[in-house]
Amino acid sequence: MPDYRFSDALNYTHEQLSQMFNESFTGYFFPMNTTAQQNAEFWRTEQIDSTRCVVMHDAAGTFVGLARMGTRGRRGWCGGFGIVPQFRGTGASKLLAAQMIQVARDTGLTTLQLEVLTQNTIAFKLYERVGFKTVRRLIGIEIETSALPAGVPLAQALQIYPVPNGPALMQNSDQIPASWGRELPTLLTIRTETVAVPTPDGRQNSLVVQRAGTVLLIHSAVLQNDFTNAELSTLLQQAAGDATKIQVYNEPENSPFLARCRELGFSEFFSQAEMLLTL
């Protein structure tokens, strides 16, 4: 077995970290290429802890792999785990995973979670071998804005307002827990807006959205039971504005919002297994 060395990410620049990430995700299912600026932004929005990240080299100093770890309270999240191509199939991935888990335990975390693409069976089996259990499936759905069915006039005028009030208003006990990247700590650190239709009795039908070029990303939704699909279609069309496509990432498989979107014609374009390890 080759001799490997592990360190944290504290003494690396974001330029170096982005290079390591790109190398370790070469040949991945989805294009995974990041710049130093994007890496720094990811560190900020997902609360990545450099002291808990794991960087792996062999005895000669060759970079082998990287595991990024975010923390919220005593919860940990693996926000990127990759091995460079030349070390895949050598057992290095299991050693990196074991070291990641050990660091989480040693630094007082009680749980560690991650997401893995459904088609990435090799990674899925690795995580199962080191103790992770599947919690649920997370779905990515999308639709061309022009393909939305005809809507109806909304009873109340549309309201649009920025963070921080918007995402905070979306948090309520009736919502299914969001995935890590759509939790409140992330939403409060990115540029979003809340699109809401108030009801006469003071409730709201609301979406927290982010505009990315010609795509409208929906991060959170609260819909009342009496809000019809035709009204939802109108809300989506008005929220989209000039956006030609609407996407939802990592929506839990048992989400009522996911079911509503599918009824409107959204199609699935990826899915992930959300996995959890109790430390």
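Above is the first protein from milestone M3; the second protein from the same milestone is given next.
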Amino acid sequence: MAESLFSPNPTAAREDPSYILQLEGISKGFPGQRQLVLREVEFCLPQGDILSIVGPSGCGKTTLLRTIAGFEQPDSGRILLGGQVVAGEGQWIPPERRGVGLVFQDFALFPHLNVLANVMFGLRPTTPFASAAGGGNRSSSTELRAELRGAAQQARERAYEVLRLVGLEDYTHRYPHELSGGQQQRVALARALAPRPSLILLDEPLSNLDVQVRYYLREEIRKILKQTQTSAIFVTHDQEEALCLSDWVAVMREGRIEQWGSPEEVYREPATRFVAEFITQANFLRCERREFGWQAEELLHIPFQALRDQPDPSLRCAELMVRQEELHLHPDPQGGIVIRDRQFLGREYRYCLITAAGKELHALAREALPVGARVHIAVGQGRLFPLAEGSSVAEKEPNRAKSKSVA
């Protein structure tokens, strides 16, 4: 996988065809809104890679996707596809000429067309029609009809090819209402892949499907995209979906990219408290520095070696992030923490804990402990976020360094 660039001024990557997509300083606003929906968004996506964009509702995810597709025009900045400027610097390439495939949340299939016709819709021959309309010097209408038949046959063969790819070659004569939701979404993916786009944009493609279908399809979609070496951008609100599908994850907040990195980097090394809370759904504990570690308000001692990063010696107060799987429970009749609730998740249990100070914590563990039991807890590993005067958390600046891919 190539190196991906995320920096305030990615001049080194300009017009570099090794990147399928480059965004430079993209901002976008709408009339009647005082705040920009997109604010100086910049990133470069390598050829063949998959990016997931996550963030809370209203952060600008879908607007960013529509701007890349060409349905919205940015107020400033420029967009390059395959090294070609498609927006900015006086250039504007309409959506139909960008070579971008689209997969929507609601499938957007034509109900009156069968599966084969839906997939072939974007493959209808246009060159012969254009030539005929322009008064081309064809010797006879027979030549035109032969060319049209040849183009139609090529479109049919390509449609069968992508339907085999998504496992629906035996469903060509069925109509959308005769298919399950998962099958309809695979038809939509086949239709997007059929014209061999340089980039596919997927807007919440799995959100309308049952949980088990979503688990299956997200694996299938990644496998198909990698098999065809197709670059893709997913917009999703599902953090787990983003982490397992993608080569890169971009976390958005209020129109900006808060952090960009590999799924492992974003999960294990969140750049800000916002990213940590949104991606990991971790516990946060206010702490004070002691001689041999940090002491939480919940009477929990955190040794220095349990922290991911060595804290600044001058730091006296902080907020500790502990992921649920890093909070280890040990039965203790004298413990000051009580198990209030237990949920069985299959491979593990999720515990809701109440501290003596009344704070609620959550932990994941394989051991079955009874509700009402007293425990003490230990931290496997944590991450400190400094507390600032006059506010709860002083968030670090977003990570704007180069993000290297995993070999």
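Note on the second protein: The longest strand covers residues 19-28.
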